[in-house]
Amino acid sequence: MASGRSGLVSSGASVNPAVLATIPIGGYGGDVAVSADGARTYVPLRTGKVVAIDTASRQVVATIATNGQPYAMALTPDGARGYATDMTAQYVLALDTMNNRVIQSIPVGIIARPILTPAVAVSRDGTRAYVTAATVNDDRLFVIDTATNTIVGNQVLPIHPAGVAVSPDGRQVYVAGCKLACIDGTFLVVDAASTSVVSQTPLPAAPDGVVLAPDGSRAYMPNGLDATVGVIDLATKTVTRIAVDAQPIGIAVDPRGSFVYVTSFAMASVSVIDTRSAAVVRKIAVNQGPRAIAVSPDGRFGYVTHSSPTCSVIDLGRVPGGS
Predict the structure, then answer these.
(1) What SS3 string covers 170-233?
(2) Euclidean distance between CA atoms 16 and 36, whole angstroms
(3) How far apart, in whole angstroms, are the C-alpha atoms of residue 14 and residue 80?
(4) Is CATH 2.130.10.10 the classification given to domain 19-318?
(5) pLDDT tens digits, residue range 142-171?
(6) Residue 23 burial by CB count (10 A; 0-12/13-18/19+): exposed, middle or buried?
(7) What is the pLDDT of residues 111-137, one digit of tens each?
(8) Is residue 163 a contact partner of residue 251, using CB atoms and an 8 Å limit?
(9) Could you tell me the pTM of the whole model?
(10) What are the residue ranges spanned by the domains of the chain?
(11) How far apart are CA 69 and CA 211, in angstroms?
């Protein structure tokens, strides 16, 4: 899952030839997700819709009307179902992506205080969706059974969550966030079966989201106020940081785990991190206000949302040091 903070101001930058297309999507896209077959890209819009982009024609080909403000989204492995969180933190929207409709609005409570960013992740076997939200009294992790679209787990969290991810074997859930005034961060390991918090690891900066390496060995977190990407070795819980452009808020890992792509809102750029050297090997200029990013299953293309009604397509094969 990718995310970001509101109220950021972007500076200008020239667009790199690697940007193949800028697709009008009719609204501000808080997140972006690509289907496992690479045929469609989905963007939840704060205007109350989720749009589907055909990746071959690079055009919006379907719209799913929803209530509320869909913000973060994750797809099941077969691409038949999507789960979107509502920015008001009141619902999780179960979406039928084959028929372009909302199957069910699953209530998770009424927001009574600010939430960093709602987040959602789906297990690799597609049986569970994990959602973070801020309810009346506390922050929580909800577990949804995707067969019945019912909540089967509900865990109070000791942090304000900003991102969630699931281990490849589905046994652990990882939640990145911060405590109190969010001066620094905390990384939680949650047992997926019991939803109990197994461990807490302090982070030197407050994260804006979290993604995993494909093999589940490391977690990567953009630190928007720190201009770094935090890296945690999940076996040793060792934490390191990699410097990137200012205000990194969106992050994605390529399918091979060779590169991490990070959007920097303030600099209108995408930093390419080589995971072997743990260093930035390339920076791609993109349109202003880049937010979320997703990579196609073959690693060739990146899809970037902006603080504007557009989604950019990046040819990662044209990027030296890229996929």
Answers:
(1) CCEEEEEEECCCCCCEEEEEEECCCCCEEEEEEECCCCCCCEECCCCCEEEEEECCCCEEEEEE
(2) 27
(3) 38
(4) yes
(5) 999 999 999 999 999 999 999 999 999 999
(6) buried
(7) 655 556 789 999 999 999 999 987 767
(8) no
(9) 0.92
(10) 19-318
(11) 23
